[in-house]
Structure formats: C-alpha cells, structure tokens
Amino acid sequence: MRRFLPGLLFDLCCLAIVGVAVHAAEEQPAKPEPAAAGTAAVSPAASPTVPPGTPGTPDASTATDTVEEPDLAELPLSNAARVRLDRARDSIVQIRGFVGKAPSSAFHGSGFAVGPDGFIITNYHVVADAVLHPQRYRLEYVTADDRTGRLRVYAVDVHNDLAVVKAEELRLPPLRLRTDIPRQGARAYSIGFPLNLGLTITEGVANGLVASGFDQRIHYTGAINSGMSGGPALDAGGSAYGVNVSVNAARQLVGFVVPARHIEPLLKRASKPLDETLSAQQARDLMAQQALTYESVIFEPLQSATSTQTLNGYTLPARMGPAFDCYTTGGSEAERQLQIETISCATPPGVLLQFDLPVGQIQFEHRLIRGQDLHPLQFSQRVNSVARNFMRAGSERHVAPFACRDALVSLDGFDARISTCARQYRLFAGLYDIAVTVTSINSTQRAVVSQLDLRGVGFEPGMQFVRRYLGAMRWIP
Amino acid sequence: MDPVMLVEVLDVHGHVQIRQRVTGVGGQCRIGRSLRCDVTIDDPYLAAEHARLTLQQDGRVLVQDLGTRNGTRVDGHLVDAENGQLLSHGELQIGRTHVRLRTEEGQVPAERAFRRDVLRRHRTLLALAGLTLCFSFAAFLQWMQAPGRLAQRILIAELVVIAGLALWVAAWCLVSRLTAGAWQVRIHLAIAAVCVGLWMWGHWLYTLAAFALQWSWIGPFAVLLAALVALAAAYLHLRHATHLWPMVSLLLALIVPPVLGGVWWLVDQQIDPRTVNRVDPGPRIYPPTLRLAPSMDVNDYLTDVAPLKREANRNRQQSLLETPILDTNE
Lengths: 477, 330
What we know:
The complex is a heterodimer.
Chain A: H1 6-10, E1 14-16, H2 35-39, H3 70-74, H4 77-88, E2 92-99, E3 107-114, E4 119-122, H5 124-132, E5 137-143, E6 148-157, E7 162-166, E8 186-192, E9 200-212, E10 215-221, E11 232-235, E12 240-248, E13 254-259, H6 263-269, H7 274-277, H8 280-293, H9 295-299, E14 308-311, E15 314-317, E16 325-333, E17 338-346, E18 351-354, E19 357-359, E20 361-371, H10 376-387, E21 403-410, E22 415-424, E23 432-440, E24 446-457, H11 459-471, E25 474-475
Antiparallel strand pairs in A: 1-12, 2-3, 2-5, 3-4, 4-7, 5-6, 6-7, 8-9, 8-11, 9-10, 10-13, 11-12, 12-13, 14-15, 15-25, 16-17, 17-20, 18-19, 20-24, 21-22, 22-23, 23-24
Chain B: E1 4-10, E2 16-23, E3 28-32, E4 39-40, E5 51-55, E6 61-65, E7 72-74, E8 77-78, E9 85-87, E10 90-94, E11 97-103, H1 118-121, H2 123-145, H3 150-179, H4 185-213, H5 218-241, H6 246-271, E12 296-297, H7 298-305, H8 308-322
Parallel strand pairs in B: 3-4
Antiparallel strand pairs in B: 1-2, 1-11, 3-5, 5-6, 6-9, 7-8, 7-10, 10-11
C-alpha cells in the first residue's frame, strides 16, 4: 500500500545509463525518469518537427535524413551499422571514474569528441561524482585503441545533463554535430560502452522531440544500455544529433537523447578545468544554482489556472501543467469497510544532480475515502492509518531529516489537519524537499488525504506552489 | 521492680519465631540445640548448649558463650569467651540464627498511627478495577481498528494483556516472597493493573485532547504524567515487596521512568524508524464534533510554516556534523 514511491506510481522508471562498475548492471538503481516519456506523446506545443531538408545551424553538418550517403540506406542494416561504427570509432572514448587510487573503476560512461579543441562531450551524470568530490574521484578515458589518460571536467550543464571534458594530450577526430531534429522515423544509431562490453552500436529509429517532463528529449526507439550514457546518437549520415542520456527501464527500446543544439553553448563556456577554478564546495553550490534555475521551467508553466478534479464533493488539484501525468484508480477495501479512490499526479524528475539523485520534481496524490457503516471513531481511525501510510524516497547520504509543522487549518469549505515538512540537501545548500499532508476533518463518513511532495526545489518557490495547491482545494457538500 | 529481659529468635525475614521472657535478678536463659535449653533452636551451627544470658541487678544482661566452636557474636563482634559481655539490648548471632535481646532499658517509641493504606485495604477491588480498565481498553482498541473477526481479535488482545500483566506481577510477587516473606498477589496485581489501565486510557485521552484542544504543551505534559504513573507504580511495588526505607524505595523508583522511557523509545524506533524520510503527520484526527479549538486561516498557517526553512538548515548542519561529507580518500 505504500504507493507514493515514484517507481511504483507510474511504473515508468527510467534508467540513467551510466554504468556502475562496483555493481552488477542489473542492480543499478532505477531512476524516476520523465513520466511523459512513458506515454511517448509529442507535446503539440513542444514538437517542432523539422520538415525534411531544414538546414541546421551554420556550424552544423549539412547532413539531412535523405540526402546523405544514399548508398548506405540501400545497404542491409548490419552493414550500415558497421560502417557508422567504423567511421565513429576513433571519436569515441569510454570515461571511467575511480575512487582515489583504486585500480578498478567505480563507474563508467561514454563520450565523444566535438570541435577542434579536443573537447569531449558526455553526460553530467557520468562525471557528477568527480565534479562534486574532485578530491575523491578521478576520471580517465580509454580510446578505441586502448590509449588511456586523465580527464578533467571543463563545463557542465546540469539542466540538460551535459558535460564537457578534456585530456590535454588527446586529440580525437571530432564528430559532426547536427543541431536540427531528425524527422520521425529516420534511421538512427546509438554508440557507447554498455556494461563494459566494449564499443557497441545499436540501430533504431529517431521518433522526434517529446516532452520528457519539463525538458525536450529526442525519443530514440532502440537499445540504450548502462554505460552508453554520454555516447553519441548518430543519424544515417554519421552526424551526432544528440547524446544518449536515459532509457525507460520498465519498457522495451524506449530511449532518450539530449538534442545536440545544447552542446555548442556549453562548449563556449569551457575554458578552464572546473577543479582549477572552483573548490569542491563552490562546485556544489554551482550545481545547486543550476538546479535552482530549473525552477523557472518547473513552476512558470503552472502559473495559469489550476486544473482540478472533483470526487465525492472534494475539488482537488489535478493536472496542473503539461508535464503532469495523472491517474485515477479506485477500489473497495471490504476488510476495512472503506472505499478509496486515488488520484495520483506527478512530473518526471527534472535533473539528475548525481547518478542517483534526481531533483526538480512535483508529485501529489489524493486518497478519497468513504466509510461504509462505520462509527465516526472507527472512520477517523482508518483515516489516520491512511494518512500515515505514505512513504518517501531519499537517502541519508543525500538529505538531512525533515522539520515539520502541523495545525488545523480552514480551507475552502472544509477544515483539515495540514502537516508541512521541509528538509535540505546535504551537499546542496538551498535545495529543499517539501512534503505536505492534508487530512480533511469535515465529515464522519467522507475524507480526503492529500499528499504533496516537491523534490529539490527552492524553499520560497516551493511554498508558493504549496499556497496554490492548498488554494485549489474545495469541498461542496 | 524485678528486671525483665525478652529473648526473640528471628527468621530470615526478621519475623519473631520464638519469644522467651525472663524476670528477676539472676534469671537465666540458655540457648542451644539441646532440649534442656530454655530456647531450643534447630540450627546445625549451634552447640548443644551454646550461650547463656543472665539478667543482672542493673537490668542489663550478661551474654556468655559456653565454649563453642563458632562462638557468639553481638552486633557482629565475638563475645569474649571468658568474661562474656554486658548489654542492655542488641542482636546476637548464634550460629546462623539471629536472636534479638530486649530489656527495659531500651526506649519504647510512641505508638504509630494507623496508616490509611487504601491499597492494602481495598486490594481486591482495586485489582478488579485495574483489570477492567486494561481489558476494556484492549477490546476498545480492537473495535476501533478491526471490524472483521472482532471477537477473535478481542480474545487475542485480552490474552496478550493477561500475559503481560502476569509476567510483571509474577516478578514482583517473587521479590515480595523472597524479601518480605509473602506473595501479596492481589496488591501487586492491583498496582500493575491500575497503572497500566490508567496509562493506556490516559494515552488515548491525550490523543483526543491533543486533537480537540490543539494545545502545544499537552505533549510534554502527557509525558510527565506517564512518568509519574510509572514512578508511582514502581514505588508502590517496592514498598510492598521489600523492607526498604521509603526514601530508598523512592530513589530506586526514580530509575524506573527513564528505563521504561528508554524501552518505549527503542520500541518506537523499531515501529517508526527515525530515517530522513520520516515526516510527522501531527496529532491523530477524531470526528469533527469532538473538536473544540478553532481552525487557523490558511495564510496564517503558511506564515507559521516559514521558519521551517531555518529548522531545515539547522537539521542539515547537524547532519553534516554527525556525518561529514568525505572530500578526500583519507
């Protein structure tokens, strides 16, 4: 019954696809990834489907879906993939992270060379530990011909899960970037080092932009596995149209790619290694600051009128923005003489601050309870047990304990006990989790228990959202 | 007036088993295993004729050991074998037996007023009342929680209550038997049942009052009351199970509330672990008709909630102090 776990709520956990060497691949923690990804619906407002032949940005490749290397399209699939892999092989590295001087790696991912300055693009979540704990972790690259060396992080974009790394001595042939979005149905490839099995290419289809939560990702229908994070997503012409970033672990072949248009602005910021200019604490503060800027993406679309849903006389917040996915389920608990209907809404986690630390997420769940021939004391007892039956996610490694305040509060048409709790992230000052539990006390046979969770948000914007959330609740007998 | 002495043989609990009265100067009392002695004691560490007590002119008593292997002791010191020892009152150790010697020189204290020992006088009634409190609460709790198979669940709950009380009462009865020489079952049952019953109903009433009144100080007050009930139970058990002085009993009883509190804390930690994911949902709710306190305006509540930011920061600082972030591999 502990149903507020994000993974169980939507069954849409995506796997951050960095490999973790210390664990078997199948033991990697599931990530609460964008719920919208599971629906794979292209948001009308956010689906700039590029017409065929649309040119890219000036520095981008002139490659398009149809005009490049038409002979490859005629080849059997396996041959096409082999050619793409052979041509990209020298541009791709495996990125490994080590704890201190340990000889075996703690995690690994992939990266590829872009531009003439020797920069390598990968995912932020691949190198997050090295950014946040520069004294504890070191990064190394392994090229296709087994050369190795030290990597340093030059710039990160937490929001888009991208990082720029570089090794002074390493100059790899860069991949061409394609900053427009491949047409839906276009042949596409993903390359990386899955499960430490060596350089691997998978073949699939690009399915256009999808609103993956608050962000836009390119939906890739093909296999992406742990360790391929940061690897290039190639079109049929061999241009990198994006960076492998995540996969829906609960579904088959539903992968996501960060569009390549976010790479160029990041490269412009890459001038010096981060560990040369920032202390560990400053790096954490910078990451927290980047995560907080994400709030404008989370909260601003919710400023318009709040969508509500009415059940049992209670009007409650429902799909408060396009990034929300809502489900309504219901059932009778004969044993306890109760009927409980549940409305669950959630956005996918916004950004990964670390491999296992998604932040910038809104979840709420309303449980509407109706008693069946229960004494008021018995009914209130059951409402109490429902209200105490929520479970939250969070590790002692990442967050401090909650501080809570509760009171009986008068809402629109009904009174409720409201308990508000807040906790801060240990590494990231200024980032909070806010949890609100609302338990109505207006009826002896009907009640609503509503639970709101904001993960990794600023305190003030979070409390403003709480105000709107409470303001949207109403009861009409 | 002829002098008088009283020789009292005590059992291990200090109760008088044999009392022998001797009057007149030169009056004697011989103590030993022999049937010819004035006081015969079946103690294998005594000689056939072990000691002789002779009443003197001045009212005191000459204690003489009759050449025994183990000797005779007065207040722990051996009596001189040749000259004996004069004393007006005291406790003799003869073999392993304690013999109290009294003469008229010993002060007789004023009579003691009758103690209004309600517990001893009404122990049966109190035990029944306590059991009623416990059984009724167990049944009430099951009625609140389990609509199905109510009779079966009530029976199980009552059995649990009986088992718990039986263990507790049996332990005190044993202490009572060993130190005071009597089981005193009804007294210990009355103490335990009344205190447990009061505690259970009191806790429920506390949650009800916390909902109805919304007083913030009611929590600490309830903890204080629970501690006082535990203290009273421990003190009464000790007073009736031992011969300890009241102050000693009270001091020993003071240990009990913290110990019980610690046990409660440990159990609560198991039931509701204090992880970083624990939130406090606030006091339980009850039917709206039982509410007396008014509700807050939502804007006032949100203003009240603002200091949570500071508290969360404090929790973070505390967490970082307890488990610092490892920035190096050393």
